[in-house]
Design goal:
622 residues; alpha/beta; 6-stranded mixed sheet; 4-stranded antiparallel sheet; 10 strands; 65% helix; elongated
């Protein structure tokens, strides 16, 4: 029972939030229209114009035309006047048809593409700015990925709905004003439809409550139906009285469902009858009786006015239904717009500074503490070390030690919670973010090949003829001369997504291409996060030797689980559980740091003959 009460409470909270969003639905939809206005005014103006022409002609054809024709007939005007008026209305409708055809079959597709293109550019620009933490937050990423993926379908639907809503609302106001000018009393019949929609809303609420109250019993009923035929339960049920128990539960569930139906059934039937009465009978027949009374007994109403008032009630009923439907659709759109609005209104935590960087001299990590959120445990604690220009720094440690987190801090994907990172004697927060990051050349642990040609994949930029020699040199240095010899050379497309003749690289070749990006870049500090994870030991050794030789006068920071590759480093930083357990050269750490030595011995064991150990091999060499 307690679980059931909690369930009901959850449903009530959902409905409260649902109503709260509904209150802001129109505001949210206007926000979306504002986005469209900012990127493609023509689309919005044309759509509004087409919709307003439609509702104006609805009024002209359904009310004004009918009244004028009856008056012409009643007054016995000439046939020429009739022809003139009908021709005038026909011309208006022909103009509308031509405009509709031009817009829907010519202009709309062009304007749609322009609008979506500009909106996507706006989205892409924002995507480039948002913090990396947004992409690493699963809920945030899924919400906003869904929002931007559905932009074309949803924005067009919002435009269609809101222009219809405003146009139909305008028509309803015009009809009300027109009816008042003839007979204000008819408004009683005109707004009979509003009573219908109030009643429909009440019926919907009752149905929701009925569904909530029956849902737990329906689950019980379905559970019984599910297990009664499952072989996993068959033995226990035949060896016990469980069949009787679940049969009783099934009967109780049915009894409770019937009880709930009876509880709400009478209310629903009464409300449904009243709704049917007001929607089908009251407005039309009530108005007819009243207006005929005026014509026959009071003799103060023209037949033309009788006809247009009845027509007005019919047209108003249709359009007020459209307005209410559009309000409900606007509410549904609001859920999408909230996500899109939050995306555009997102304010970065990592904020760019104003200073420009100079050529790298030194980097200091000073009393750095970091956690990914206020509620989570520290990932890095009290880190302190320095890096000088030209040094080769290796960062090692077990999985989860905080190595990649440290790299994220160096690149300012996140900011430290406490302490500071000092670049050339100045806190990195003071530097222009783009300029600061341009000082780094990075090969990430999980890089990607783009469905573009080799030049763009190496440069990570548009190709310029002046860069051709740089690209070829980078490919040679990384051991990817194979790509230079492809049929289309360095302009060969990678992957087959857009080109059936495109080249698909192996994991090892992919990794070499990532390193080629490093060689092609202009950087002060190279960061390598597991750049050799897909290479065999010989290729890995060759790659590191080349890297060290080609970055002789550069600063290199690299993470590697393969400790054979870190022997060449000037300094090795040993991380464990977010703290520094040791700093030194390979030989120093082998003597002083148990964690480093044990990891090195464990890996070295894999490359020795069976039954031999690294310690024995080392002793024999002495």
């Amino acid at each position: 029972m307690l679980m059931y009460i909690k369930y009901l409470k959850g449903e009530q909270e959902f409905r409260y939030k649902h109503m709260k969003i509904k209150g802001n639905a129109i505001k949210n939809n206007f926000y979306a229209l504002g986005l469209v206005w900012g990127v493609c005014k023509e689309k919005l103006l044309m759509h509004f114009f087409i919709n307003f022409m439609q509702v104006i002609l609805d009024f002209v054809n359904g009310i004004f035309f009918l009244r004028t024709i009856i008056i012409i007939i009643e007054k016995g005007n000439s046939y020429e006047q009739y022809i003139f008026f009908v021709t005038f209305i026909l011309i208006l409708n022909t103009i509308r048809a031509l405009l509709n055809a031009h817009y829907y079959y010519y202009s709309m597709d062009i304007l749609n593409n322009k609008m979506i293109s500009e909106l996507n550019k706006k989205i892409f620009s924002k995507a480039e700015e948002v913090d990396i933490s947004c992409y690493e937050n699963k809920d945030f990423y899924e919400d906003y990925y869904w929002a931007i993926q559905n932009v074309e379908k949803n924005i067009n639907s919002i435009i269609n709905n809101m222009t219809s809503l405003i146009s139909y609302l305008f028509l309803c106001i015009v009809i009300v004003v027109y009816v008042i000018s003839i007979d204000p009393f008819v408004l009683i019949f005109l707004f009979g439809n509003l009573i219908v929609h109030i009643l429909l809303k009440k019926i919907k609420e009752i149905n929701i409550n009925k569904q909530i109250e029956t849902s737990i019993y329906n689950r019980e009923k379905e559970y019984v139906k599910k297990i009664i035929f499952q072989k996993d339960y068959a033995k226990e049920m035949r060896m016990s009285n469980m069949y009787t128990v679940i049969k009783e539960n099934y009967e109780n569930a049915i009894t409770n469902i019937i009880r709930v139906y009876k509880k709400y059934g009478l209310k629903l039937s009464v409300l449904q009858f009243i709704t049917q009465f007001f929607s089908s009978y009251f407005a039309f027949f009530g108005a007819c009786l009243y207006l005929i009374y005026r014509i026959i007994f009071k003799k103060d109403l023209l037949v033309a006015d009788f006809a247009v008032l009845i027509s007005s009630i019919t047209l108003f009923s249709q359009r007020i239904n459209n307005v209410i439907t559009s309000f409900n659709i606007a509410h549904e759109h609001s859920f999408y717009i909230i996500k899109l609005k939050s995306y555009f209104n997102y304010r970065n935590v990592v904020v760019s500074g104003e200073s420009n960087t100079q050529e790298f001299l030194d980097l200091e990590i000073k009393n750095v503490n970091f956690s990914y959120s206020k509620d989570s445990e520290k990932v890095l604690s009290d880190l302190n070390f320095k890096i000088q220009k030209g040094e080769k720094i290796a960062i090692v440690g077990p999985n989860g030690a905080g190595k990649t987190s440290l790299i994220k801090l160096l690149l300012r994907f996140y900011d430290v919670n406490d302490g500071s990172i000092i670049y050339n004697k100045q806190d990195i927060k003071n530097y222009n973010l783009k300029d600061y990051r341009s000082r780094y050349g990075v090969v990430f642990q999980s890089n990607h090949i783009f469905a573009l040609n080799i030049t763009e994949n190496v440069l990570m930029d548009n190709f310029k003829i002046s860069k051709e020699s740089v690209i070829k040199s980078a490919l040679l240095k990384s051991g990817m001369q194979k790509l230079i010899n492809e049929k289309q050379g360095i302009f060969t497309n990678l992957t087959k997504i857009f080109d059936e003749d495109g080249t698909i690289l192996s994991e090892g070749q992919n990794q070499k291409l990532y390193v080629a990006r490093l060689y092609a870049g202009n950087f002060d500090i190279a960061i390598l996060d597991e750049p050799s994870s897909s290479l065999d030991p010989i290729a890995e050794q060759v790659m590191y030797e080349k890297l060290m030789d080609l970055t002789k006068y550069k600063t290199v920071i690299y993470i590697s689980h393969k400790l054979s590759s870190v022997i060449l480093a000037d300094q090795i930083i040993v991380l464990n559980n977010g703290i520094i357990e040791g700093i030194g050269t390979h030989s120093e750490l082998m003597k002083t740091n148990k964690l480093y030595a044990s990891m090195f011995y464990a890996q070295a064991q894999n490359y020795l003959p069976k039954g031999n150990t690294y310690e024995n091999q080392e002793n024999n060499s002495k």
